[in-house]
Every structure is written in C-alpha cells, then in structure tokens.
Design a protein that fits this description.
The chain is mainly alpha-helical and 507 residues long. It has helices spanning 2-17, 28-37, 40-61, 64-68, 70-86, 88-91, 95-113, 117-150, 155-158, 166-181, 186-200, 205-223, 230-237, 243-265, 269-272, 291-312, 316-334, 346-350, 355-373, 376-387, 391-401, 407-417, 428-439, 449-458, 462-468, 470-490. The longest helix is centred in the first third of the chain and has 34 residues, at 117-150.
Amino acid sequence: MQLKTRSYACKELTSSSGECDPLCSVDETSSQDFEATYQPKTDLLKALAILGAAAIGTVAINQSWVAANQDVAMALLFGIGYAGIIFEESLAFNKSGVGLLMAVSLWVIRSIGAPSTEVAVSELTHASAEVSEIIFFLLGAMTIVEIVDAHQGFKLVTDNITTRKPRTLLWVVGLVTFLLSSILDNLTSTIVMVSLLRKLVPPSEYRKLLGAVVVIAANAGGAWTPIGDVTTTMLWIHGQISTLPAMKALIIPSAVSLAVPLALLSLTSEVNGTGQDSPNVLSSKQMAPRGLLVFFVGIGALVFVPVFKALTGLPPFMGMLLGLGVLWILTDAIHYGESDRQTLKVPQALSRIDTQGTLFFLGILLSVSSLEAAGILRELANYLDAHIPNIELIASAIGVVSAIIDNVPLVAATMGMYDLISFPQDSEFWQLVAYCAGTGGSMLIIGSAAGVAFMGMEKVDFFWYLRKVSGVAFAGYAAGIAAYLAIHNLHLSLPTTVAQVPFLSGL
C-alpha cells in the first residue's frame, strides 16, 4: 500500500513538473528496475573478487619483498588506487571508499618499510595533524555555506541579476560567479549559479553555454583567494602562499582567464542568435526569516578567517570554527521555539554537507603524505628538476594534468615534492601552482568539482563541453599564465594601499 501511494505521488509530481521527485528513485520504479537487472551470481562473484583481493593483499604485506621494495609497492598501490578513483563510475566503487582504503594500505606498507614502527607512527601523527587542519577548515566552511543557503541568503545576489540580453547576461553571470567563488568554494558557487540560470533561461544551447561560463568563472574566482578553492586553501594553510601577496599577484591572471573565454563565447551563434530574451521560467523561493542577517554573518565569518589568522597567529581552521560557532549560536537564538524551522539550524545543516567528499579528501591527503614520508615525492621532484628545469613549465603542466586528474592530490603531491627552502613562501612557483591548479580544471568538464556538478545538474555531455568550451577555456588558461609572467617579470602589481588597511598588513 505504501509503495502504491508513493508511486501515485511520483506520477503526480511527474505530470506537473516534468520531473520525478528524488524519492521515486527508492520506491516502485527503482524496485522494478532492480528486480529486472538483479543478478545474484554476479554480485557473489564481485564479493568473492573483493575478498580475494583483500586476502592476496594481506599475504603480500607479510612478505619480506614489501620491506625490501617499499617504493615500488607504494607506487603500484597508489597507481591502482588512483585508477579506481578515476574509473569510479565504471567500477561502481565510490571514490571515497577507494581513497580511504588506499590511504590505510599505503601507511601499512610504510610501517613495514620504515626503520621502525615508532618512526612510521611519528610520521603518521605529523601527517594527520596537517591533514586535520584542512578537513576541519572544509567542514566549517561547508556548514556555514549550507546554513546561508538554507536561509535563501544567496537570493540577495541572484535577485539583482535582471538583464535578459544574451551577451550582457553572459558577462554578468561570469562576473557574479567570479566574485562569489572568491568567497565561497567553487562547487557551492556553481550550484547556486546554475540554479539561478534555471530561473532565468529556458533549456537551450545558450543555457548550456552560460553554465559552462559558470564553471570557468567559479574555477577562476577560486584561484586568487585563500578560501576560494581547496587547493589554494591547502597552499595557504601550509604556508606556501600568504593572503595579500597571493591575491595581488593572482587576481589579474585569474580575471584574464575568465575574460578571454567570455570574449570568445560572445562571438558564438548561440549568444548572438535571436529569441534568447526571456522572462523567468521558474518562481523564486522566498527568503527565510532573518535570512539577510544570516547571509551577512555567514559571509562575514568566511571573510574574517584571514584576519583572525593575522590577529592571533593561530591556524586558519580555528578562525573557521569560530565563525561556525557564532553562526550556530545565532541561528539557535533567532529560531528559538520555532519547531517548524529546525532545517534552518546547524544540526540539520551538518546532515546535508558533503561528508563523503570530505572523506575523499582525507583519504587522498593521507595517501600522498605516506608517499612524502617514504621519500618518493622528493625523488620525483629531483627527476623533474633534472629533466624540466623550468618552473613555469612544471606549474603549467600541473594545471593541464588537473583537467584529467583531481587537483587536490596533484597539489598535495607538489607540496610534498618541493619544500619552502627550495621555493620560499609567495615565490613565483607557488603562486603559479595556485593559479594553474585552480583554473586548469576548466579545460575538461570532469576536471573540477564545479564541472562535475554542472554536468550532473544540466545533463551536459562530455563531448559537447570538449567541442564547445575546452578550446576557449584553454585559451583563457594560457592567457592567464602569460599575464602572470608579464606582471611578475615587469614587477607590476595592484595598488598597495589595501595593505594599509588595519590588521591586513600582516596577512
């Protein structure tokens, strides 16, 4: 009876909106599909294969070969694990699970190959402390953004976009996303802006291009601030870049990496075609009570993090946790006694944040730290230095590779390969790595979290993006590198008066 009721509700939702409610996926329709495709023998074989692989791994770990060939064993395991992450969809294994399994396995091998177990434990303790800073920072930031979004706070931004002229809208969407992503993470900015596009433009090739602009702008906007992208946050937390020098050095290249694709896309037939002007196609939700207050407090908490670090000298994650605590108490106070608004409070927001993605970062960062502890990354750095002595080429290559491979492990590996003695804080190399890793993912739709989110929300085909967008994204990426090198070599910079703002001169 319950299934029939839910099925009827699904039909009602489908007929009225054209889409089935997400709950449909767990009821009658999915049950029928499951029964039609369920193959017990196949599932049994998969289970036996996994158990067999685990048994072989356990036996292999006990062999003296692992201790004598630690580097080879770790490199092979990392390669196999990363292949599992890349082919997540084909193998039907979640990348977070693969990442965690890979991390633990690598550290087990490191404990076998280390001079002693105590040495391996000491290395793991040090690595865990560094990784925890990033994880706590991300959890705090995601929760704050979720609270603001639950209060419809981003309507303050989206409701001010009123133009329907195709070319103007293209530039406005790009600029707003660029600025939004410099404060929020690029994934959240993409979700907010693509949701906005659904209200502004009906389904069309033009809307797809606008969505592609959102991806490029979100990645570009996140590259020039310490809190705009996971990779820049990692570099900032570990001291490779500092706040104001990085922002002054990277804002122009990041803006160029967006402006070039916008100019090229403005010439396309989709943008210059007729019939694109249109009213809103969806109604907007009302802003939640006190949503304006929550928006300003939440955004203020994010912006205050670098200031907190300068004032106290404490790690950035402490500033993020301070902001989360303030917002937590605030939402408890303003919604006191409102039992129907529990979804607007932090406990409910914690259940909606991307914990799965955070665990993936945890697995990747711990995996890379094991390679660093074993000295493998240092050997790789020496090899690159010997064969590619130009640091600009190395940084540029990192950006190109990040279009295929997730930029988080790439940057983590780079941080392990090169230390602050070889390249001091705010050196050209680290600033280029921040720019290239942040913007390089725009060249393919699978190259960044923003692109993957856009792909899922708008059902965009990989090859459509490759055909329509990858070329202009690469042009912007290359132009941004050229802009950075020109500014750096000519010793140009933005006006430095911003450095005189109280408390900011020490950032």
